[in-house]
Design a protein that fits this description.
Belongs to the RutC family. By secondary structure, this protein is of the alpha+beta class. Helices cover 21% and strands 29% of the residues. It has 2 helices and 6 strands; from the N terminus they run E-E-E-H-E-H-E-E. The longest helix is centred in the middle third of the chain and has 18 residues.
Length: 127
């Protein structure tokens, strides 16, 4: 059975999907972009701040499911320019313990929703 996870501390979906779906002990979090859930405005003026907003949106969804970044087992990072990888990775890495960080891939794509620079999705497991 699946349970839809929703929180007003992360942006509402901008299409026909949910913020996250919990099935059993597995949480599948939809890709998050730098939408501020309070203002519904994009925070893309500076790449590190944009990445931090994405990670904070992921954190809010994890917390709603009574999890945190230690529960994350896999992430997918989509970026509009691979030259931005180091800046994004620096912020992303600050949310994880290096020894227990999740598996991931980082992919450069032609465009992202609302033409943002980074989108991150995650899979987490509740032990």
């Amino acid at each position: 059975m699946k349970k839809i996870i929703k929180t007003d501390k992360a942006p509402a979906p901008i299409g026909p999907y949910n913020q996250a779906v919990l099935t059993g002990n597995m949480l599948y979090i939809s890709g998050q972009i730098a939408l501020n859930p309070e203002t519904n405005e994009l925070e893309t003026e500076e790449l590190q701040k944009e990445t931090k907003r994405v990670m904070e949106n992921l954190k809010a969804i994890l917390n709603e499911a009574e999890m945190d970044f230690e529960n994350v087992i896999k992430t997918s990072i989509f970026i509009s320019d691979m030259n931005n990888f180091a800046k994004i990775n620096e912020v992303y890495g600050s949310y994880f313990n290096a020894e227990t960080a999740p598996a991931r891939e980082t992919v450069e794509v032609a465009n992202l929703p609302k033409f943002v620079n980074v989108e991150i999705s995650a899979i987490a497991v509740k032990s």
